[in-house]
Specification:
mainly beta; Jelly Rolls; two-stranded antiparallel sheet; 8 strands; 33% strand
Length: 197
């Protein structure tokens, strides 16, 4: 469902602490945090890459969804779009500061990797607004990396298969688009592989 555009733009810093961490964000919340053009920001690269032709092909969630593991770990990502489109998986989410169990403001996704016996899963990250870093941990080589992404200067990074990774905000908010080519046929329960402690 596509919501009509509203004329409010910018981020209201007072709003960042108003939402409880478990509550999803509504269309109005997203307009307040990102701007009235947040749906167009998500749509434009998908149209450019010929994944969709019309914005009506996207299933925008209101309220947004969150990811939680069976052990109770929760992602701070507010998922605006989560769908299979053709052969692709497409995710769009917003990260904003939320209190963790110690009350400290944190905005990050859960660490995971993509590993499938038949498909080399690639994950394209497009930072549409804000700033964040991708934390990469190549389990086989022991190589750790922190990649700084900025929507104005360095908005794209490709995460290769079998690399543990998660994202963390470095600004007030980050609007992120993730495209996983040829990953639609992987069952949901095998797509995101958490690190085993």
């Amino acid at each position: 469902m596509v919501f009509p555009a509203e004329r409010r733009t910018g981020v209201n810093p007072d709003f960042l602490d108003q939402q409880p961490p478990s509550q999803g964000l509504t269309h109005e919340d997203l307009v307040n945090l990102v701007g009235s053009d947040y749906q167009q920001l998500i749509f434009k690269p998908l149209r450019y890459l010929k994944i969709v032709q019309d914005i009506s092909e996207l299933d925008f969630k209101s309220p947004t969804g969150k990811h939680e593991r069976s052990n109770g770990q929760k992602s701070h990502g507010h998922y605006i779009v989560e769908q299979k489109i053709g052969n692709h998986r497409v995710y769009a989410y917003l990260l904003k500061p939320e209190p963790n169990e110690n009350g400290e403001p944190v905005g990050k996704t859960l660490e995971h990797k993509h590993e499938d016996d038949e498909i080399e899963v690639l994950e394209h990250y497009f930072l549409l607004k804000g700033a964040m870093k991708l934390i990469l941990d190549e389990e086989d080589t022991g190589k750790n990396q922190s990649i700084e992404l900025d929507s104005e200067r360095n908005p794209h990074f490709l995460v290769k298969p079998r690399i543990y990774h998660h994202s963390e905000i470095t600004d007030n908010v980050a609007l992120v688009l993730v495209i996983m080519p040829d990953a639609a046929q992987i069952p949901d329960d095998r797509l995101h592989v958490p690190r085993v402690a």
